[in-house]
Design brief:
By secondary structure, the chain is of the alpha+beta class. It is built from five helices and nine strands, in the order αααββαβββββββα. The protein has a single domain (2-164), classed as Nuclear Transport Factor 2, Chain: A (Roll).
Length: 179
């Protein structure tokens, strides 16, 4: 987290707090906890969701979570590793990867959505703006996508995520921070 070392510690701590709140709210579809991470009223928030669709504001994201809350269950096991955090003035970005056990209700039974420990990767964009100009950090954009399979060799290198481990970064001097 190179730039994070030169950014004010209070900024880094607040961004990491919001990052943790966001991911931990995912475990039980905690909508009030999730909403507090994003700008208020949230009309300019934009998300590229893991499901492949785009959500254009906090009201749409809330409707998505209400829909999922009735159709999914989770066995916990949330693990999120921060790969990089860059803070530049009033803007920051964070890259992370992680896993969570998620189960989907298909109308007749609960089935595992993928495999237990469903993996993801995410990029988060933060601005020091609560949404009304108040200088408080909020997440304004997130992009979540699926990584390559754990055992698929990385082109050009031949190593796999299984071999490297979740959160591995080749230039990392200090340990990767958990969310």
């Amino acid at each position: 987290m190179s730039a994070a070392r030169t950014a004010p510690a209070a900024d880094v701590d607040e961004i990491l707090r919001l990052h943790r709140e966001w991911w931990e709210s995912n475990e039980n579809w905690d909508i009030p906890r999730m909403a507090a991470v994003f700008p208020d009223p949230g009309d300019e928030y934009l998300m590229f969701n893991f499901n492949g669709h785009t959500y254009y504001n906090l009201a749409e994201k809330t409707a998505l979570w209400e829909w999922y809350r009735d159709k999914t269950g989770q066995d916990g096991g949330l693990v999120v590793k921060v790969l990089r955090l860059e803070v530049r003035g009033d803007t920051a970005w964070l890259a992370a990867e992680g896993s969570i056990g998620t189960y989907m209700y298909d109308g007749g039974e609960w089935t595992v959505d993928g495999v237990p420990g469903h993996r993801f990767r995410a990029t988060e964009i933060y601005h020091r703006d609560r949404g009304d100009g108040t200088p408080e950090w909020r997440m304004w954009h997130t992009h979540i996508s699926a990584p390559a399979p754990d055992d698929e060799p990385r082109p050009g290198f031949g190593d796999t995520t299984d071999q490297r481990g979740l959160g591995w970064v080749p230039w990392q001097i200090e340990p990767v921070r958990d969310a």
